[in-house]
Amino acid sequence: MTMRIAYLLFAAMLFAWFPAQAVEPLAVITATSNPQDTLSFDSLKLIYQRKSQMDAEGNRWIPLNLPISDPLRRGFSLALFSLLPEEQDDYWNVQYFNGISPPKVMASEEAILRFVASTTGAIGYVRKQKVDDRVKVLRLITPPATK
To answer: Beta strands 104-105 and 62-65: pairing type?
Structure first.
């Protein structure tokens, strides 16, 4: 019985030191005026790699990211590319040399919401609960749990 109590106390300490992070779904958003209602995972990946430049209507995609240290950006990058943002430096160095800039970085989810709502072709991501009537959701992504 004493061993069982010791085990339970040890397990409780582990959970206290290393709490499980709740993974919040991310909503990939665009302007409500965009005629597109969905977006495949592969298409999203191509847009964020800047390999797909135009939507079906001929509007230039403007992909948006949060700052590199933002946990949402890290989760988005892991979900989409299985890489952390800083692990993509080599890719973007080559692209930049070829005249292709990485996605524009916005300071916050609210900045992404405002930019997407007012800019044709803009696409970004925010936590699902941040979505409001200024934008529409093209896809939900559940990022992997990270430390």
So the answer is: parallel
